[in-house]
Each structure stands twice: as C-alpha cells, then as structure tokens.
Amino acid sequence: MSEMSHQTTFLGTPGTDSQEAWDSRGGGGSDGVNPASSRLSCGMSRQERSRQLWEDMSTVEEDSSKLNALQLRLDESQKVLLKEREDKLALSKSIERLEAELSQWKLKYEELSKNKQEALKQAEGHRL
C-alpha cells in the first residue's frame, strides 16, 4: 500500500472531517471491536485523534523500516550460509580425494617395503 493510501486510510478523504465520517471509519461508538479506535473515541478531540493517528502511522512506518532492515539482514545471512555450505561441500570432496590419494600412497609404501625386504633377503642369500 502506498504512503498516500496509508494516509487516506488513517485520515479519510479530504473534506470528510465530520463526526459522522469519523464514526463510519470506526472511530466512534462503543460497539466497535477495534481497541485502538475505542481508545481514540473516549473523549478525545478531533485534533487529539488526528495527532494519535499520525503517531500510529509513524509507528507503522518505523516498524516497516525495521522489518525491511531485518529482511535485508536475513537475506544476507542466507547468502552467507549458502556460500558456507558450498565451501563445506567443496572441502568434503577435497578431503575424500586426499584420503583416497593417501590410501594409494600407503599401498605403494607397503609394496616398496615388502620389495625392499625381499631384495635384502636375496642379497644376503647371495653373499653366503
């Protein structure tokens, strides 16, 4: 809803400042369900009601600004979280690859150690 329509909603259209117009918008009477409008109609003058509406509108605008700021922070946090998840996945794949390489190097080391032992035994056998 645009700012102008907010103002129209809260303040009515120009030229409808009569008590009937106020009552038709829910500002008068005790049978209404809206506690804010009941609060406003309890002996407040038109000027006081107008001031209260402007304060309420200001509060709504402040809340809207805070909500927008929080939404921006949430969006940024979600981007960071997504990037961290991608990095974690990449690191996990890298770890798996390195573990596989390490396993291959261990097998080669064991094979070379076995060959060395066999070569030493053969060398000792030829000396005797």
UniProtKB/TrEMBL annotation:
Compositionally biased intervals (Polar residues): 1-21
Entry keyword set: Coiled coil
Coiled coil regions in record: 67-122
Region (Disordered): 1-57
Protein name, entry field: Uncharacterized protein
